[in-house]
């Protein structure tokens, strides 16, 4: 296993814990996040390793960045990685439903499986799982909490103020 480094970045929505390998960003979670991995004592704290992603996060929260451009190291099952790649294609300022995402992946009856994979997304914000809403447009299911999901969607203009 490669050496992992970590840091905490302070955002308008609270502290974000970032974890990266030599290949790229592996994890970005809010402190209170349903599926955040526990801190590992083998991780090395190295804020300098996250300069680019932290600058992009700051620009995103300032409304100046729509697409992240940092190397990613997504660790998950083949299905999860397929869903996460599809999430990355949901445009800034737009939303989609679990069912629509499942249909786009060629598995129209797999909306629950999409939801489970979406909930395990290790890269909140960067891989925009917050852009997935219920079939009726309601805000549902966000590991960082629905208030944060609403904030992110308002920031992007996907919800009226």
UniProtKB/TrEMBL annotation:
Residues 5-74 form the Methylguanine DNA methyltransferase ribonuclease-like domain. GO terms for molecular function: methylated-DNA-[protein]-cysteine S-methyltransferase activity. It comes from Paraconexibacter algicola. It holds the Pfam family Methyltransf_1N. SUPFAM superfamilies: Methylated DNA-protein cysteine methyltransferase domain, Methylated DNA-protein cysteine methyltransferase, C-terminal domain. CDD domains: ATase. This enzyme catalyzes only one turnover and therefore is not strictly catalytic. According to one definition, an enzyme is a biocatalyst that acts repeatedly and over many reaction cycles. Keywords: Cytoplasm, DNA damage, DNA repair, Methyltransferase, Transferase. Involved in the cellular defense against the biological effects of O6-methylguanine (O6-MeG) and O4-methylthymine (O4-MeT) in DNA. Repairs the methylated nucleobase in DNA by stoichiometrically transferring the methyl group to a cysteine residue in the enzyme. This is a suicide reaction: the enzyme is irreversibly inactivated. It is found in: Cytoplasm. This is Methylated-DNA--protein-cysteine methyltransferase. It is an enzyme of class 2 (transferase).
């Amino acid at each position: 296993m490669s050496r992992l480094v970590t840091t905490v970045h302070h955002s308008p929505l609270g502290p974000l814990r970032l974890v990266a390998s030599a290949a790229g960003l592996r994890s970005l979670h809010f402190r209170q996040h349903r599926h955040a991995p526990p801190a590992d004592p083998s991780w090395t704290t190295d804020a300098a390793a996250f300069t680019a992603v932290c600058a992009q996060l700051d620009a995103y929260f300032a409304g100046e960045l729509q697409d992240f451009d940092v190397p990613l190291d997504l660790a998950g099952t083949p299905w999860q990685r397929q869903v996460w790649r599809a999430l990355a294609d949901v445009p800034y300022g737009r939303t989609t439903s679990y069912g629509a995402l499942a249909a786009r992946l060629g598995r129209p009856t797999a909306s629950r499986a999409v939801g489970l994979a979406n909930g395990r997304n290790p890269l909140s914000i960067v891989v925009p799982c917050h852009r997935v809403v219920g079939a009726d447009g309601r805000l549902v299911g966000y590991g960082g909490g629905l208030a944060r999901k609403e904030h992110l969607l308002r920031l992007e203009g996907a919800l009226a103020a």
